[in-house]
Automatic annotation (TrEMBL):
The keyword Lyase applies. Keywords: Aminotransferase, Lyase, Pyridoxal phosphate, Transferase. This is Aminotransferase class I/II-fold pyridoxal phosphate-dependent enzyme. It comes from the Bacteria. Its cofactor is pyridoxal 5'-phosphate. Belongs to the trans-sulfuration enzymes family. Gene3D superfamilies: Aspartate Aminotransferase, domain 1 (3.90.1150.10), Type I PLP-dependent aspartate aminotransferase-like (Major domain) (3.40.640.10).
Amino acid sequence: MPVERASTVVFDDLDSFERRVDRLYDGFSYGLYGTPTSRQLEDHIAALEGGSRALVVPSGMAAITLTTMAVCHGGDRVLIPETFYGPAREMAARLLAPLGIDTVTYDPKLDGRLSALIDGRTQLVWVESPGSATFEVQDVPAITAAAHEAGALVAVDNTWASHLLFKPLKHGVDISMQALSKHAGGHGDLLMGSVAVNDDTLFRRLKDTARFLGYGVSPEDCALCERGLMTMPVRMRQADSTAQNIISWLSERPEVAQILHPSEPDHPGHSTWKRDFAGSAGVFSFVLQPELAPHQSEALRRMRLFRLGASWGGVHSLISVSDPRKGRSGLDWLKPGPVWRLSIGLEAVGDLLADLSQAFEHFAETRRTTVGDAKAAE
Ligand SMILES: *Cc1c(COP(=O)(O)O)cnc(C)c1O
């Protein structure tokens, strides 16, 4: 893919210069509003998403803020799931609230019952399925039907599944958003986000909002993202296959209280996942036995291949530790204990299992010490 850099675009004559705003959505008038390189990536993403138009922006977070601000204005209401990407929940409280945009946070298990929360002011319903950290799968068609009946638009953060495993626009969703920083970038070194739609008016609203916010993307980054898209199906399949092996191993371990992955038969939304998704990504969580909480940091320190990091979708495996219980209700299905999220990379499965195994050995040692101490006390 040729990389064409530009801030300035030059025009052949005064007439075309004066009519340059006509080129805002489809042609080229200024580097910030699109280059041949960014347009090519956008056209590619629109096709992959099954949409008519797509827009690329500097990050996944930029895509969430852009979508919300393009649709909602002062006095409006937006619904977000409790599992929504953490920084976006903070954005709602600290950027949207002062602008008079009111946020209602809902239990991701509500599905069609969400209609009770949609009032005349509600312009937008956000869905993130599966949700961050705990991976509940939401019933997108039911939510979309409820929102549309009340005149609200639906946007899906589809970062986990990506266009390869779930196509929100095909399920009637209005806006499909992805953090391309994850699976598409795929190497832990790229930041980008996308929004795809099937409606030209909505596209223009998004494009205008991106222009007002001054969002632009580097053509080098677009070319890297394009390269990532080419290997993404193979990488995602490989990571998922390794993840399945790691899940089998974890399921047998006494240290593990619960696996949080849509393919678990008792996981919230499991049947919806089977109905709507074409597979799973190599990103999931598990709950450690609560008594292991004080020993986590030493076990994590012993990891060699799994590094501590908050992102995911790259070639290197990562662990992220969070407390998903903060600010949430409806988590009675979640067992107590620390939650570790794994992002499975492209390392050999045997090496990853050996790494987990030697780090978990620390848990076994602490248990032997505890049992030994108890025996000594007797
Ligand atoms: C990472 C992530 C984002 C934000 O993407 P950035 O490009 O890092 O800003 C949004 N949603 C989800 C689900 C994510 O995992």
